[in-house]
Amino acid sequence: MKSTAPQETQSLLLDGPAGKLECILEIPADYQGRHAALLCHPHPLYQGTMHNKVVHTLARSMHDMDIATLRFNFRGVGLSEGSYAEGHGETDDAVLLATRLSQLFPMAELWLAGFSFGGMVAALAACRIDAAQLITIAPAVGMLAAESTAEPAVPWLLVHGADDELIPVAAVLEWAEGLARPPEIVVMPATSHFFHGQLVALRKLLVERLAPSL
Q1: What are residue 127's phi and psi, to 5 degrees?
Q2: What is the pLDDT along the chain (214 residues), one digit of tens a residue?
Q3: Most buried residue, 27, 45, 64, 131, by most Cβ within 10 Å?
Q4: Distance between CA 141 and CA 164 in Å, rounded?
Q5: Is 22 helix (H, G, I), strand (E, B) or coil?
Q6: What are the residues whose beta carbons fall under 8 Å from the beta carbon of 209, sequence distance 6 or more?
């Protein structure tokens, strides 16, 4: 796949609900300003950060589609202030930064995306703000008490590994298919929770599935 290194990368400390939040804003070369995506990382208590390789792959797939991205560390991770807040505070972090991203790019459609714990946070955030697209990669079903209220009413792509050793695909399918508006679900064969050896395939899949809607 071609290189899509962003034309502009900014390291930022933005005000959050519990203090400063460490962020990376990446703007593709020749950016047209039509779409911007907020990316949420895995569980803060299990070494999850915005530098996670699946989150990085999400960013690169967005750049392939001319979408600016804002990655960030949840409260208590890296340089972000505050402490872990059981998913509730992390959802507040995401909602605030999504609003800030929309202010930075007022003409752009807002997308929300996340991996594992971050996938569930993105889904919860999508219930509270006006987003045009939701992408959840191996969402951590069963990890957040608040997930019972997650009923996003936006176009939604869910990607999960058939061999996920942490979040069984059967549990995810049961949860997702019980929603009033189930997401589009893609199960990647021979794929573990962290997409070992499958990151290139994941990036290609995301572009193939999402680019036609742009």
Answers
A1: -80, -10
A2: 445 566 799 999 999 999 999 999 999 999 999 999 999 999 999 999 999 999 999 999 999 999 999 999 999 999 999 999 999 999 999 999 999 999 999 999 999 999 999 999 999 999 999 999 999 999 999 876 556 666 899 999 999 999 999 999 999 999 888 888 999 999 999 999 999 999 999 999 999 999 998 9
A3: 131
A4: 12
A5: strand
A6: 157, 184, 186
Place of tokens 């059981």: 86
Which residue type, as a one-letter code, is found at position 53?
Answer: K
The distance of Cα 194 from the centroid of its chain, to the nearest Å, equals 14
Q: Which amino acid is at 16?
A: G
Given a contact cutoff of 8 angstroms between Cβ atoms, the answer to whether 72 and 51 are in contact is no
- pTM exceeding the 0.90 threshold for the entire prediction: yes
Place of tokens 């047209």: 32
